[in-house]
């Protein structure tokens, strides 16, 4: 035996990372599971909520209501992502865009995901108990819609519509109920606008995964619409703008609100240009651009109240 080999000590096993590092990595995985690293979904749900709160509160929503709804959107979006990934944990590994999600990559167990989902739902329930009874009743129905979405989309040929009915706009009647104690007609028109908008942007998102969804048999509006996808997106964009115009007419809103709608229309034209060749990367950019649509409409609502006084 050489002198060098003789000086080598006994082999040691792998050194375990300190507890703090392991905890940080675990929390990071939970954050990715809840999509905290991708806030676009939160913004897309938050903008309609803010439209409704500003209109129902005449630009001065109750501070408690505002805080509860902002936190509620964040919590419910996280819970919805978790239950969606739980339902898709055996499908996501076969889709390029989703194969690295914590559940799909088996970095988080199903039991952990369900535990986190329950904790988030309990947090959402606690938040809504700060509000009135009608809002609480609507919240229970909304929670049922949210939890059922990942399973309904298995057989429903237009899951983007169900997403809009549950995630996309349900905070609107809740916001009016919290501020006014009732849900007037204008709230339901605004809800229709938000639902249709959710179908628009989630169809753009589905166009990114069209080939993978076709191979594994997942339902989506992109597959249902087929070659008419751009036309159908355009029709729904017009319906959303028309619903928003009806809201403005009913509330006797003026030029600032109309400017917001015109700005949203210009962004929709840009989205149509992006998806003209149906390239996945461009469709994703069109999807992301909807954040500016929601922002533009909110700015129009806010300025209407500022300058109409």
Structural write-up:
By secondary structure, the chain is mostly helical. The protein has one domain: Tetracycline Repressor, domain 2, CATH 1.10.357.140. It has 14 helices and no strands. It is globular. The protein starts with a helix and ends with a helix. The N terminus is likely disordered.
How would you describe this structure in keywords?
single chain; 309 residues; mainly alpha; Tetracycline Repressor, domain 2; 14 helices; 73% helix; disordered N terminus
Number of E-state strands: 0
Structural class determined from secondary elements? mainly alpha
CATH topology: Tetracycline Repressor, domain 2
Which CATH architecture?
Orthogonal Bundle
The residue fraction in helices comes out at over 70%
CATH superfamily: UbiA prenyltransferase
Biggest sheet layout: none
Helix and strand succession?
Answer: HHHHHHHHHHHHHH
How would the blueprint of this fold be written?
Layout: H1 3-6, H2 19-33, H3 40-56, H4 63-87, H5 110-128, H6 133-152, H7 159-168, H8 171-180, H9 185-208, H10 210-216, H11 221-225, H12 229-251, H13 255-274, H14 280-307
Helix pairs in contact: 3-4, 3-8, 3-9, 3-14, 4-5, 4-6, 6-7, 6-8, 7-9, 9-12, 9-14, 12-13, 13-14
What is shown here, in short?
The chain is mainly α. Helices cover 73% and strands 0% of the residues.
């Amino acid at each position: 035996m050489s002198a060098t080999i003789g000086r080598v000590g006994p082999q040691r096993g792998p050194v375990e990372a300190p507890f703090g590092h392991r905890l940080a990595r675990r929390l990071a995985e939970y954050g990715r599971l809840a999509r905290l690293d991708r806030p676009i979904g939160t913004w897309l749900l938050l903008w309609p909520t803010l439209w409704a709160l500003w209109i129902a509160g005449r630009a001065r929503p109750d501070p408690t209501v505002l805080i509860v709804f902002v936190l509620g959107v964040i919590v419910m979006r996280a819970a919805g992502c978790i239950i969606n990934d739980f339902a898709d944990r055996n499908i996501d590994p076969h889709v390029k865009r989703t194969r690295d999600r914590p559940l799909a990559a088996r970095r988080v167990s199903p039991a952990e995901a369900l535990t986190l989902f329950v904790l988030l739902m309990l947090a959402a329930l606690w938040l809504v108990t700060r509000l009135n009874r009608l809002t609480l009743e609507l919240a229970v129905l909304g929670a049922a819609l949210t939890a059922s979405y990942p399973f309904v989309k298995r057989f429903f040929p237009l899951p983007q519509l169900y997403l809009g009915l549950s995630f996309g706009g349900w905070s609107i009647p809740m916001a009016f109920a919290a501020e006014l104690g009732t849900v007037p007609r204008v709230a339901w028109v605004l809800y229709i606008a938000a639902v249709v908008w959710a179908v628009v942007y989630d169809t753009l998102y589905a166009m990114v995964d069209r080939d993978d969804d076709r191979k594994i048999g997942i339902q989506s509006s992109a597959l249902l619409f087929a070659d008419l996808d751009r036309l159908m997106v355009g029709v729904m964009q017009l319906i959303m703008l028309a619903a928003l115009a009806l809201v403005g007419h009913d509330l006797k809103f003026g030029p600032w609100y109309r400017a917001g709608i015109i700005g949203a229309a210009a962004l929709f034209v840009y989205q149509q240009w992006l998806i003209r060749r149906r390239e996945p990367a461009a469709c994703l950019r069109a999807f992301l651009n909807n954040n500016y649509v929601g922002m533009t409409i909110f700015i129009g609502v806010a300025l209407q109240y500022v300058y109409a006084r």
